Amino acid sequence: MLKAVILIGGPQKGTRFRPLSLDTPKPLFPIAGLPLIQHHIEACAKLEACKEILIIGSYTTSHMQQFVTDMAKEYHVIIRYLQEFTALGTGGGLYHFRDQVRAGNPTAFFLLNGDVCADFPLKDLWHFHEEKPNALVTIMGTEATRQQSVHYGCMVCESGSKSVTHYVEKPNSYVSTLINCGVYVCSLQVFHTMADAFQKKQDRFYSGNGHSNPGYMSWEQDVLAPLAGTNKLYAMQVNNWWSQVKTAGSAIYANRHYLELHKERTCTNATCTVLPDVFVHPTATVDPTAVIGPNVSIGAGVTIKAGVRIKESIVLNNATINEHALVMYSVVGQEASVGEWSRVEGTPSDPDPNKPFAKMDNTPLFNTDGRLNPSITILGASVVVPAETILLNSIVLPHKHLTRSFKHEIIL
Questions:
Q1: What pLDDT sits at residue 14?
Q2: Which tens digit of pLDDT belongs to each residue from 255-293?
Q3: What Å distances lie between residue 389 and 318, 338, 340, 344, CA to CA?
Q4: Phi and psi dihedrals of 197, rounded to 5?
Q5: Which residues belong to any copy of the Nucleotidyl transferase domain (predicted)?
């Protein structure tokens, strides 16, 4: 029997995802028609041996309960949400709920970061882990460019055994192009290692040298880094698509790839012109003269009127796109409205296609001159864009009623 643990953090995290996370918790933000962590749940539920999925985070239970109930019904697997009442870090939450993870004595458990998107090869990862009898943790790794690798956990492996000899989280200088994907298989014995790390944290805290929260523990720095070089930490390198969702721009990029991976969900019977791949929720109303795609997701209750053109965008529930409007490289928030003949356009922030293994660059919001860096355009919930308006590379916070065109601005 196997289990899975999904770490989703809490509302104090994911600040780069605002304003989209102001009304929807980031783990539930829809990408390719499904909440972000539903893709994780689906990958875990495909494994027959996986009998329980635990979601650990500090969002309130009221935010998560309906989602958890729906998922358990849909995938016929036990799913529970375990709420941290204070931020415990990537390792602290897992250690705090160790008894729930160990209950039923599973052979091992998967550990997945909630903000990664991937074609999850969980079965391959599990088989790889099984072949290493002394492995406590097996990391799913992938190749990055030399310049970008320093923004991730970097690993050095033995060429034959794939044992990790060196692990550094976000190093100051180049270590390796093999990076940590935030997807793991762990043996239950890893909790003994975590107990030692936890004890060291406690000793430091009570001697006055530690973190302000004695329960706080970093999985990467307090567990993985000390395991490197002990023949108990391994890495399986994959070439599957993988990305993180840190910003709204990375959500558009992930949307494209998930649509491609799950073509069985994409729209094939629409009356309007569709340039694949496109997801349209069954409750959305789309005029036959609209042209949608490529790489568009349309949420529940959305109304798209005559002559509308949408590409490379996500339109959230109950939004309205009025006649002849254009939406490109944008996220349109819940119940937002785009007026007729308006243009809502952003700039894609995709990885450099000319660099092998390039990942998303999560560029800062502002450049060194204090100007807004070009990025996708975001309309917060219930924003109203009037007719014949241009909105370019801008972020509009929820409930704003615009009165004119904007370029390269944040509208507070």
A1: 56
A2: 999 998 888 777 766 788 888 889 999 999 999 999 998
A3: 21, 9, 9, 8
A4: -65, -40
A5: 3-218
Of 410 and 357, the one with more pLDDT: 410
304 phi/psi in degrees, rounded to 5 = -120, 120
- Distance between CA atoms of residues 155 and 178, nearest Å: 6
Length of the chain: 412
Residue 62 to residue 129: CA distance in whole angstroms? 36
- Asked if the model's pLDDT at residue 13 lies above 60, the reply is no
N-term to C-term CA, the chain: 50
Cis peptide bond upstream of 294, omega within 30: yes
Q: What local confidence, expressed as pLDDT, does residue 362 receive?
A: 66
pLDDT tens per residue across span 199-245: 888 887 777 766 667 778 888 888 888 888 898 999 999 988 888 88
Residue type, 217: M
pTM: 0.92
